[in-house]
Amino acid sequence: MHQDGYSKIIFSFFGPPGSGKGTVAEMCVQGLGFKVLSTGNLFRKHISLGTDFGKLIKDYIDIGKLVPDEFVGNIVLDWLKDAASSGMPIILDGYPRTSGQAEHFFKTFKDFAPDYEFRVIYFIISDEEVIKRLTNRFVCQNKNCQAVYPPFAPAVKKGICDLCGEKIVRRKDDSVEVVKDRLRQYPRYKDDLLSYYKKTDLLVESFDVEGKSIENVFKSFKEDYLNGDSINGIDKE
Ligand SMILES: [Zn+2]
């Protein structure tokens, strides 16, 4: 147990785009002092700093290919080692995303975060609600940053990017068709990852966020998933 009463847990937040997982993760940083990793933000940071890894992933992104699981895994584990030294709970926002990433992570994470337990929180939300949320997003104006925020993100209220401090503006290209297209790709990732967890006997904890305000989602997360031993909505499908 950490001095603040939190257990050493690595949460993997997993769910479709627009489910609010990134915002809840960010609220856990701001309000509870957790450590959060968004691979998207980490990639952008490496690209804008021009690190060796940044150059490598830019090459993959430029040709429209997925960055290999092992490259992503190594950069995540490097980050994890530092985060785990704090003793605070850790959230991996959208990682692992594929069974390959999950396999790489499980093989090695204990070397980097020895006392930590791993839990998967699976955000469940309908396509209709995702479409409603994602056609109304905001983006950082800084060309080297371009962080994206849902309409309810705290950063949008402030009008300032959490990562670089530049202004945030409404995004133009999130048409319903673009969002639907992104949603069409999601079941493939989802099924692949869920079947991997099933195979390895890892419990996946379902979290129904449909129709809930982001404040309520944050509250439920704290009450039902963070504190105590009782876990709601366990789902081993
Ligand atoms: Zn920014």
What's a quick, concise take on this entry?
The chain is of the alpha/beta class and 237 residues long. Helices cover 48% and strands 16% of the residues.
Q: Separation of termini?
A: 31 Å
What structural class do you assign from the helix and strand content?
A: alpha/beta
Fraction in beta strands: 15-25%
What's the CATH architecture name? Answer: 3-Layer(aba) Sandwich
Following the backbone from N to C, one meets helices and strands in this order, namely EHEHHHEHEHEEHEHEHE
CATH superfamily: P-loop containing nucleotide triphosphate hydrolases
CATH class: Alpha Beta
Number of helices: 9
Query: Which sequence of strands runs across the widest sheet?
Result: 2-3-1-4-8-9
Find the count of extended strands (DSSP E, 2+ residues): 9
- Note poorly predicted spans: 228-237
What does this molecule look like?
This protein has 237 residues and is α/β, with parallel strands linked by helices. The chain has a single domain (9-126, 184-235), classed as P-loop containing nucleotide triphosphate hydrolases (Rossmann fold, 3-Layer(aba) Sandwich), CATH 3.40.50.300. Helix content is 48%, strand content 16%. The chain is built from nine helices and nine strands. The protein has helices at residues 21-32, 39-49, 52-62, 69-84, 99-112, 127-134, 154-158, 176-199, 214-226, and strands at residues 9-14, 35-38, 90-93, 117-124, 138-140, 148-149, 168-170, 204-208, 234-235. The strands form two sheets. A six-stranded mixed sheet has the order 2-3-1-4-8-9, sandwiched between helices. β5 (138-140) and β6 (148-149) form a beta hairpin. α1 crosses α9, α4 runs parallel beside α5 and α6 packs across α8. It starts with 8 loop residues before the first strand and ends with a strand. Residues 228-237 have low confidence and may be disordered. The structure holds zinc ion (ZN). Zinc ion (ZN) binds next to loops.
